[in-house]
Protein 1
Amino acid sequence: MAEKGRTQAVSMTGSAPCKTVLVGVTGCIAAYKTCEIVRLLQKAGVRVKVVMTEHATEFVGPTTFRALTHETVAVGLFDDPSDPIHHVSLAQEADAFLIAPCTANVIAKIANGLADDLLTTTALATTSPLIVAPAMNVNMYENGATRYNIGKLHIRGVRIVEAGDGYLACGDVGRGRLAEPADIVSAVLEELGVRRDLSGRHVMITAGPTIEPIDPVRYITNHSSGKTGYAVARAAALRGADVTLVSGPVSLPAPEGVRVVRVRTAREMLAAASESFAATDIGVFAAAVADMRPKETASRKLKKGTADADLGTIELVENPDILATLAAGKRDGQVVVGFAAETDDVVANAQKKLATKHADLIVGNEVGEGRAFGTDDNEVWFVSAEETYDLPLMSKDRLADEILDRAVQFLG
Ligand code: C5P
């Protein structure tokens, strides 16, 4: 690698993206509210899997949760013949396990370590934070047995999102109503250690390569995998931002809770990014935009040896610079992050780009020889008007949080 600048300790406390929350549903009329909880978790950038008790399926069908989560929904201990220890794999996959609504019966079981179905067995097998949101009739909720069991869970470190007061499905009025879905989701995100410092903020990210057609079959492009931009989008969503991801063609799945606008060419990317930029608090321009495109795009495949094709010569014209164009018109308070992928003189080039592209921060990195493109980690410099420093080698997920941490400082 090129010689490094000043080394500065970097915070490694950012929220790790791509969290999976296992949501347990038990047999209670409030089970329909779990659909809203699942949606809110997804909006927060979380991947959700659902496990249900048999009784829960009497209230909401597994198909509903399968459609919402695009994941298989687990019910029986032995339903999955390919995975005879399903409770262990589910437990291991989960960064947190939420049971909402949780009946008095299931509270009693997990308080005493009973494990007679998939949900309770998974609860016993998990080492991740367990969050329980009870819902039941007021008398069941106030019953000494239930209070005692909830107390036991609390002492064991289980997070209890207590039920609220109100009208209950049975006609009684009192405590026992499932807590508000938003409050339950806040508790889960807290247990996951996710900071919500971008709540109410708009973040736009460009990501991936662009492709510039020569004819209907051929095009000019580059090696960008889109991983960094997608990681920033995922992290921003988890931190509470409203996220728009303008993406060139990549083979990555859309991050949860992110609005994805798919484009192909640089000019399409500029049009899509322009639409979102005005409302953006933070713009992260991670796309590897093709610098040039063929002047003409042939409507038919160019054939060698024919009059319509001189395959040795393709006339190129320059593409618009999306970052420089949009950042030139940025308003006060908008933060712009650009990238400099260089084979040589990373820092000097990044410093030059800071000014020419009107960016607040340039993330510089070396490319070539297996570095950066398509890999899962990266070693970069942060270059701003105030300072230049390098960060240690880290995953692109972690880097995404570092970029957002720095952008938040610029927001003030
Ligand atoms: O000039 P260079 O391509 O090295 O600049 C890299 C930075 O500028 C990246 O942030 C990239 O997303 C952005 N860029 C752009 N439009 C272009 C070329 C680069 O937004 N046409």
Protein 2
Amino acid sequence: MSGMTEFDVAGRKILEGIEPLPTVEVDILESLGMTLAENVPSPNDIPFAANSAMDGFAVIHKDIEDVSEDNPVTLKVIDDIKAGDVSSRKVTPGTAIRIMTGAPLPRGADTVVMVEKTRSDGDSVIIAAPEDAGQNVRRASEDVRKGEVILEQGEIIEPAGMGMLASIGRSRVRVSRRPRVAILATGNELIEPDGQIATGKVRNTNTYSLFGQVLRCGAGPVALGIARDSREDTEKKVKVGLAHDVLLTSGGVSVGDYDMVRDVLTEMGLKLVFWKVRIKPGMPLLYGRIGNTPVFGLPGNPVSSMVTFELFVRPAILKMMGRNKLFRPVVTVTLDEDIDLRTGRNHFLRAVVTRADGGGYTARTTGPQGSGILTSMVLANALLMVGPDVSRVERGTGLKAMLTGKESM
Ligand code: AMP
Ligand code: MG
């Protein structure tokens, strides 16, 4: 078929026109999944001061290095430090200070003997088992050195990063603003999930899967409902969509008599970048801009809508979010079945990739691959990529698989 844009060209054309959104400062509790817009250095060492990793006794290692059951040492306990307290006393030869986990190591001491290895005797402690020098002490800066960049611009903020930001004293952080992504379904046949199903009706599926996909990017989805297959209704709802950072429509971009999304977008000033990509599923994909707003005309079939989101919309949203890593990991997998394909387009087969016993990965497709068969997506954790000239792939062949990061697998 002529007029189709190649897969990689389409992706490049989208991304070259996308810029990161302006940055905002947010509370760290709101930062999960957002992208850092700054390098974050630690203003101090972590731990800030050496402290005990155990409940026990702070001692001088020389006093306990040779002890054994037959040769215990008795040290005089001269103080007791709880977490949060600081001792004014100094450990000197022949003495120890009782210390709780997290309390700062007192002056003079270099080692903590865990309480389980000791016996009390009045105001002394008897130690009959040695510890290594420095044992059970968390050194100052052993985690992070003052000035060290703990998180870099362009990185996603994960739960551990939220904790790290807190631990270096940052309650607010600068991130790229979350894109607001409008989602518009189109079609006279569509009803919402709580509507009554009947012959001729189809439940609006794409709004919901796309909503989830947008959320997974860390962006903010806005569902605009269903536009009926009329110019007026489509135009009215597209107009609402254009007030967002990105507009996704689904359906109505094929060549049917009532596929009017492209016409309506064109009348509204669409600068078309491409229509139709050499891929399966998802060939009718349309992309362009109206004013400054990127508009994706996603195909209506539920699998096509999800796969084109994964391949084209997700990287664009991540770029708007300032992310330095836009693409899913691609691994080489060994195919565990024979598959026959129609040539002419790049295939993205829905598959389950598993780790093979002897290392590496194996893959099987998720069964029937029709672009209306959403089960193929529900079961998949990867898209198997097969080039346009391949008509048969035999079991044992190595293929590339894009891991789509399903959390339940
Ligand atoms: P279209 O390109 O509008 O003809 O849509 C292609 C196919 O996808 C048709 O079978 C539509 O009924 C179906 N479809 C379109 N939009 C949706 C949607 N939001 N949810 C589920 N199916 C849809
Ligand atoms: Mg339609």
Protein 3
Amino acid sequence: MSKELVQIFDTTLRDGEQVPGCKLDAPQKLEIAARLDELGVDVIEAGFPVSSPGDFKAVAQVAALVKNATVCGLTRSVQKDIEVAADALKAAKRPRIHTGIGTSDSHIKYKFNATREQIIERAVSAVSYAKTFVEDVEFYAEDAGRTDNEYLARVCEAVIKAGATVLNIPDTTGYCLPAEYGAKIKYLKENVKGIEKAILSCHCHNDLGLATANSIEGVINGARQIECTINGIGERAGNTSLEEVVMVLRQHPHLNLDSRVNSRLLYSTSQMVSQHMGMIVQPNKAIVGANAFAHSSGIHQDGVIKNRETYEIIDPADVGVNASSIILTARSGRAALAYRAKLVGYELTKTQLDIVYEQFLMFADRKKEILDDDLHEIVKLSPIDR
Ligand code: KIV
Ligand code: ZN
């Protein structure tokens, strides 16, 4: 059975760029946009055009540059925002306006001092107005994660009638549990009239470390777009990480879901974004962290040397990492030492290995990690005939 495709909506240049202290200049944004297009994402959210002249220009330049992906600009449910976004997206081959409004009781009361009915009216008029500029209009129900499902369904129904092509259901505060978020998507699938005319989209934040799990629950329950960022960067604890959701779908074929992303470009894209943003990738970050394919305990090293699959569920080459690494520390065993010694040119017999291992342990107790230069020194100091 052929797999259903989940659209990957990358918002590194919009939600991702909302990381405190991280600002991308225009050439950096263009370089990242070109890379995202090459990576195979379906949608690039290039910015929030009304927010500043710089953002407007960046969105316009990305729109003109990108060849394959849809290029999207964010707006509030405000006419001026929509006009400016439409203008910024003029050169895009596939333009999308992403408009919306807060729908949770707390947003309605504190942000808008409005009623639920007034919010629906504003949502509908924003979508209708955006439709006068572009065919592809995505609507976001901000704080949908804390919006009650019955009201959310009414909002969705109204904006579909007004022409929304995609319904973004953001867990803006990263509050939902996976089962709860999945149930929300299922509820909308089953209770919104006209839902077959629109794609449901997951937009999850990571405040409780659940963004990836929630997005995956979302697509299991019928959503067909995931909004995410490279390295999971974004406001506060960040957004859903693109590399994680892409690889979850790829590593679990029984879900019958996949994306168009070329996973072999994931590691280099992660590095590019990290460098441009001046934000290091935490070493234990799934998929793209420096330790994601590094093994340091003797038991694991022995297993991986015998067969990589004993302790790795992903072939590093599939995400653009050269090879698994065997890190030599005081917890490494003879198998790891023999393996690394061979890589730097020493084919040791069993007797030689026992002797070199004694020397290795003395070094390893003094150093956090034994590097290739140390290995040469260790072999030189070991009393073996060579
Ligand atoms: O998290 C959120 O609700 C958002 C919307 C503006 C789409 O980023
Ligand atoms: Zn967001």
Protein 4
Amino acid sequence: MKDWWKKSVVYQIYPRSFKDSNGDGFGDIPGIIEKLDYLKELGVDALWLSPVFDSPQDDNGYDIRDYRKIYEKFGTNEDMDKLIQEAHQREIKIILDLVVNHTSDEHEWFVESYQSKDNPYSDYYFWKDPKEDGSEPNNWGSSFCGSAWEYCEQRGQYYLHFYTKKQPDLNWENPKVRKEVYDIMDYWFKKGVDGWRMDVIASISKYTDFPDYPEEPGKKYYTGHMHSNGPRLHEYLQEMNREVLSKYDCMTVGEAPGSTAELARLFTAPERKELNMIFTFEHMNIDRIPGNVNRKWALKPFSLVDLKRIMSEWQEKLNGYGWNALYFENHDQPRIISRWGNDTTYRKECAKAFATVLHGMQGTPYIYQGEEIGMTNVQYELKEYDDVEILNGYKELVQTEKTISEEDFMKAVWNKGRDNARVPMQWDDSSNAGFTSGRPWLKVSDRYKEINVKEALEDENSIFYYYKKLITLRHTREIMTEGDYHLLLPEDETLFVYERRWKNKKWLVAANLSEEKISVEKIKPYLSDNGSIVISNYNRQQISDILMPYEAFIFEIEV
Ligand code: NOJ
């Protein structure tokens, strides 16, 4: 089918936390194969695997040492071949993670590049001379704290790294680098993969005059608009499309921090021949104070009005121009019900309510492992955490700069830390949640006895079966894919309500994203006697006078 990804639901697997098959405490590819029938039961069309390639794991595989080799703890290249084959047998596609803004510092290109200014790889990365006083070439910061530059004695120069110093940025100005990337993509396409999620793809083109960010009091290093959407970005993506993507029936989704809905049109408009969709960060940043020295750890209360405004803008601006990637969770984001909802009394209702508003939209929905059973955030002591973003943030902000107290930092970690999503998948109520027979690389959530796949599969009203129903709707109802979108009650602080329209049908998608009981009067004007419930998280056949806490439904009206 042409554009199969428009009717698809993608499930993201974070391999090290999904299922361990050999008891080393680390998820692996045979573990994924074991669970393919479970994923088939859920009904998803494609699996996006976070990086599975050989890596020293400084940033959990987002630092690749060899793009053609599977990381040994995940298995072998043969295991990967088998996964592709077994998934395809079940009509499930495989999307891999293309991390080519940077490599690992242990990649052979960087090892060579580091040696001297005159070897074949010397300009595979960005190297710059120090300023006269020996300091960094400019004030750019790394996303994981500190400067984005690291000094190398051998060359007497600094190299650029937007992430950790073990993740040097590739120099896409160099055509040889681009060719290397296209070859890697070809290699995996030939093995049968069906597409790519592209890590921080909006950062591959740099502002090569490397200007400083304007200075602000109390700040030494800066991350901001010069870290993404550089001048040659779209040229590179068009070249990549021409050289590789156009030759395969594939799907692409680019991670694009710093991009607006207008920019999303540039990436995704079909006639521009770049990508199929991009992940926005705009809706994920609504609880963050822009420019704050404590970065993502400076919390701002959740505003439903902001969430609706941003998501609606993307719906409206891309309709007919490009395509949306719909998500609330991934391996970098905390669990949505813990972040903006209720993960205790109304856990199940709340998980279904967020799922309803997301899956009711136009675009390709992404489910992050565990989201379909309502997994929650965790609250650990610092020593239990593994994530380099948390550990670097603690060192720099709490210990060195002292810009945030330990207490506030830990609160922010419990709310926003990436390890919330990375704790092992909860399969059943046996020890370590059935994830491993060994010692898990990251502590399992205390709530696994209550929240696990086994429990969900045995309960016909589970979050799992609600997701399954939403996925079936996406496969069977044209209005879900094609319908246009119109936000209702934009200023309402508890209700997320919108309409979809297609041919002679209208859908009213409504969710009460609060613990309050709300009179149905607010949405009465948009209802009709001539309609029926498509899906309801309170199992209603008819709409009642009160919208209960986290109640959500889709109501279909003939027009
Ligand atoms: C985005 C990835 O999703 C994240 O996990 C990673 O740390 C950075 N890019 C750097 O690759």
